[in-house]
Each structure stands twice: as structure tokens, then as C-alpha cells.
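so my prof wants the structure for this chain in the C-alpha cells format not the other one, which i didnt know existed until like an hour ago. anyway here's the sequence
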Amino acid sequence: MTKNIFYSLIGFASFVLIVLYIGFFYISASLPYIPNDLRQLVFSQPTEVFADDGSLVYSLRGQQYVPLSQISPNFYNALVATEDSRFYEHHGIDPFGLIRAVAYMGKRGGGSTLTQQLGKVLFFTYRSEFLRKFKDMLLAMQLESMFSKEQILEAYCNFVYFGGTAYGIEDASQQFFSKSAAELSISEGAMLAGIINAPNLFNPFSHPERAATRQHLVLTRLHTVGLLSDMQFEEAKADSLVYVSRRQRGNDYVDYVLNEAATLFGTDAVQYGGLKIYTSLDPDLQRMAENAVSDGITRLEASLDSTGAPLQGAMAVVSVASGEIKALVGSRDRVPGGFNRAVSENRHVGSGIKPIIYYTALEKLGLTPKSVRMDTATAFYAGPGQPRWRVRNFDRIFRGPVTLKWALMLSVNLISAQLTKELTPAAVVEAAKKFGITSPLEPNISLSIGTGATSPLLMASAYSIFARNGMYYPPVCIKRVQDASGVVIHKALLRFGDQRLDPEKSYMTLDMMKGYFSNLINNGRIIRANGFRGPGAGKTGTSTDYTDAWFNGITSSLSASVWVGYDRNYQMYRKNRRGVTGSFGAVPIWANFMKVAQSRYPARDFTMPEGMQVLNVDRITGWPTLNPARSLPVVVAEDDANDLRNLNFDIRGFEDDAEDFIDEFDQMTPIDTTNGDG
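here's what i got, hopefully its the right format
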């Protein structure tokens, strides 16, 4: 009996060994070919980004391969101490690291060695295989058998991703510190070594506090393993890092594309998968936008009372014809991988929300641009237990009766609030979603003057709908993606458009916004003074505390949204102590951009739907008039133009919420002003 058990065990052990032997050679046979020079792999099959015209605009690989002798030990010592402290002791696999990773479920670091990480990224695959981890281990051992530790470390330093557009230590050193990798100090080397663990999270441009905390951990690790003396440790902690401010390759559009691609395919695929990403970027338009924002912010900042913080700006440009994103500028001076204000949904839009409210009022309340509302002091119910909300106009003037188009041109807050009350704030939020604004907006009455926050990209996309007479196209930057072998793995859906708005009412609203280009108001005069002469439409936006200034403008070809402000919500005041409005801060940037952009994207007349008519009406009463001093052109449906019943005898605005009722009709005589903004 005992002998049978013994032979059974021998047989079972032999079977297991045979299976392991066969499995080892099966897996080994499927391992990728490793050349004799790792430098051949470091620059092979980079992920590339192409513009709409097919030109290559960015390649995700380091620009220079530097030998280990030209890399500061201050970096690679920090790298080894932080990422793989037993790098010089193991043979590709660290058993202690694996045990730690399993025991703590990865919470105290993974079990992969630098060699394993190098093998994984050099031979990236999209396939999620059961045996992938074993293959990585065998590949690491194969690398260790073929190359010295110095060669492996050199290849890793030249291939690893540092965030933004930096691949390889030389790229990173130039990007963050404008110096060669050989010149890195202890504190600089520790900062760069700390970034590798999570490049987006620890980017010192966008997350300086997190990056500093991570750097301190790296320095502590160096001190703990004996690579820093007590004095060096204290000096490195006290060293103030100075980051480069010079322009780097790439742009905010490329950064956005890479983030979108990472959402679709994963970060590893973008960084190491050799993708070919074809976009809707117009490189010339991108340069025009960058120059307009940079020059405009510099001029504006010179006219302001200094806050000690840098003034910032952003712009998003969308094609009216297709909805494709043509240009994105996320700051006045781009920093690689930094904060992209063009797509960040965190700034109050001010009166930029009003065209959406006015369109909804035309659609839901049966109004027209010549309908009249009463501009008078009013308090609104804000919710249970809350004080009544008293809104005031930007210029502190109450005009009495006023047509909707004239009210929008003057950005009258009281009229917008009245319309929002009649529609309900919840209806305005739903309307914003119809325009593609997916930002979380609170359904409060104060939404009527733009207390909701969104991004320039979403605003540019929303306004482009008006130029298409109500047709919606989602904003798209990636048109097609191919893998390293040329197979198309992603393609934008065929774009037929979604008719979300009533064409007639959409055009009526567009025509009301065309009034913003009229010489009747300051905004129109500023646009013309800055050189833009073509037809257009738009709306400014100014937050109540002067922290945000916007202009959202459209032509028949392009929709562009401009924002200016400070990152920390500082107020913007000119040296004469007047607040910065959208007209003063954002409109010149938009106009200077559009006057050069129209050479490539001509601004032609908008297409008016059939069955509509232009009337000259009194901008106060809405009645037909021949008086040029009070005449205002409006667009209405032909039925409304010929219907005498729509002569606005029913003037709304004095309701239960009204305060400070003006008794004498003479006191209600409207006051024309050309300074409306909001």
C-alpha cells in the first residue's frame, strides 16, 4: 500500500514537472523578440497625434536618448530608492516585493520591479491575458540575462512617462526645469522621481502641493536607505524649486486629446500602445487662438490693479458646420500637463446663460423678440425659509417697458429673472441640457444671471447651435484612432445632427444676439474697433463680483468662447476702480482672434429660415415705427408680423413680487443706455 502511494506521488510529481516544462516553453515561445540594443525599442511605434489636414502635430516619445553617464545620479538614485530598492540585488523579479504587494493588496506599492515595468511598456499589448503576469516575469528575467543593470536602468530612464508631453528623463528635465538631465539637483531629481508613480496626480504645474508632498516622501526614502546624509536631506527639503516658464512643444489641444484617448483606451495604451490619433485640430487656428489669448491677457493685465496673481484666460473654438473642436487654449502661457481652463467646468457664466433663457421663453411662453416686459425693481421668491432675492441691473437703471431684443442687448437682469420665474429654474436647467451643457446647474432663480458654472468648450458648442438654426452636434476632437498595426479601433459616429431647437425661434434668438454687434451699444463698437467687420452674434457674461468675464460669439463658420479671470477668484478691477466686464475683458480677445480667423473661415450672413420677416419696431413698445432714434430691427414669423393682435398691449412685469411700484407714468419713461453688460 505504501509502495503504491509512493509511486503515485512520483507519477504525479513527474506529470506536474512535465506540464510546467511544457508550459514554460509555450509561454517562452510567445514572448516578444528582444533586440540586442534596447535603444531600438525606446523609439519604436510612438503614439502620434495628427491634425485635421493629416499633418503630424505631436509624437509621444522623448526627443533625445541620453546615456546613463549623462543622467544625474540625483535622479536615478531617487528612482531606484522609491520604485525598486532591491534593483541591484534581484534578477528581474523581487520575491519580497511580490509578498508585500499580496499581503497589503497593493496599498504599499506594487510588486513589479523596474525591469518588469520596462518590459511591460516596451512590449505593450491590448490583450488582457490570464498568463500576462507570468509572461512579464519571464520577460524581465530574459532582459536581466541579456543586459546589465546599467543598460536596463538607462533604457527605463529614457522611456518612462513624466506627464504632460514629457517622455524620458531628458524631456522631463527640460520641460520642468529647463536644464539637461545631467544638471539635476537632489531636490529636482527627487521631484521627477516622485512624478513617475502618478504623472497627472503629482504634476507640479497643476498640483504643486501634492507634488511637494510626494517629493518629501522621496527625499525621506533616500535618507532612510542611506543615500542622503542628514545635512543633504535638510538642504534638499529647504531647496526652493524654480520651474521653467518657457514655451514647450505640444499644446492644450493635444493634452485634451490625450486625456480623451486615455478615457477611451486606458492610460497605458496611450503612453505605450503606438496609437495613431487623428483629430479635428486646425493647427493654424490653434496658433491664432494662442496668440489672441496671450496678447489680449497681457494688454488687459497692464490696465488692471495688480492682485499679485497672474491673470488667466481661455478660449474654445468649434466649427459651426460640424461641431468639431478646432482649437483649445487653456491658459495664457501653456504649461505641459497643466490646468486646462478651456474644458474645466468651474467658472460662473454670467449673462452668457441669457440667450438660452430667451430662446426657452420664445418656445414655452409664446413670446417674440418684440414682446414687452417691465423692467422695474422686483424681489423674487428664492425658496422656503430664504429671504426674497432682489436682483438689480448691471448699470443700476430701471427702464420701465422694454422689448425682449432690446433687453437682451442691454443685458437687463430683471427681465432675465422674470422670464426664469415664469419658466421655472428647473425648466432653464433642462433647456441648458438641450444645448449640450452637461455641467451640474442648480435650479435656483439666481441662475437667471449666470450663477451656474461651466466651461468655454461647452459654451462654444451651445452657441454654435444658434448658427445652425437649432441643429445640435456634440463637440468632438478625435475622429479616428488606429492601433500600431494600422487597424482602426475607434471612429467617430456618422454625424447627422440632432434638431433640438425650433428653427424659427432659434433664428429669432440669434437675431437678438446679432444686436450685440450693433453700434447701438458699447459691445458692438468695441468689436468693430478691434478690427472685426463681419456679421456675427453673441453675448457677454460678467459675474456679479467681477471674478469672471466672458464673451461667447458666433459667425456663420465658427463659434468661439473666451473667458478671463484669476484662478483664485480674485476680483478684476481697472486702475480707475471700475470692474472688468465681458465687453472690456473678453470681447477684444474674441474680436482680434476672429478678424484673422475669418481669412480661413469666412463670416457670411446667417441663413434665415423661410416664413420669417424683418420688422423695424420701437425698441420700447414693440410697435412698428419710422422713428430712427427708437427703431430696432427684429425678426418674427410672418404671421406675427401681420397680426395686429400682437401689439403688446399686455405689458407684464408688475406682479405679486413687485416692489417700489412707480406710480407716475412719466417716471416710467424708459432710459436708453449703451453701457449694459452682465
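also thought this was worth mentioning. Residues 23-29, 104-108, 654-676 have pLDDT under 50 and may be disordered.
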